[in-house]
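Marked as duplicate of an earlier ticket. Keeping the data here for the record.
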Amino acid sequence: MVVEEFIAADASAHVHSRARGRFEEAVALVRAAHGVAVGGVDPVGAADTYLVRRTDLNILVEWFADKYRQLVPAPAGLAERPLPEALRDRPCLPERRIRDMVRIGLVAEAVMGRPVRMELAWKNGVVYVLWCEAAG
């Protein structure tokens, strides 16, 4: 069992230090969303998706999702809320944060000796690594 502090995140992301698939270059995959959870963990929200070249952290591809809902802290856990209209068509995180997350993923990969996948949360400009595991 793992017990961790709950982070009421402004934005969350999943990072794969080496994206699976056939790409011309080695890339990392980042999926980011407003609120507490993202992607496969978040059943309500759409995520922005990035492919980032591992060698120089250049963002090669970015897809911005149509975002309408997010998960937010509530007295009984999490609640689904409408995403404020001003945030719906904007990236969840600035490009420098996307690069920072890939950099963290590459360091974790170097330590673990194999590609990793991890979940990170941003709160008030601070990044938190929620979990990290070797990617199969």
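See parent ticket for discussion. The first helix runs from residue 95 to 112.
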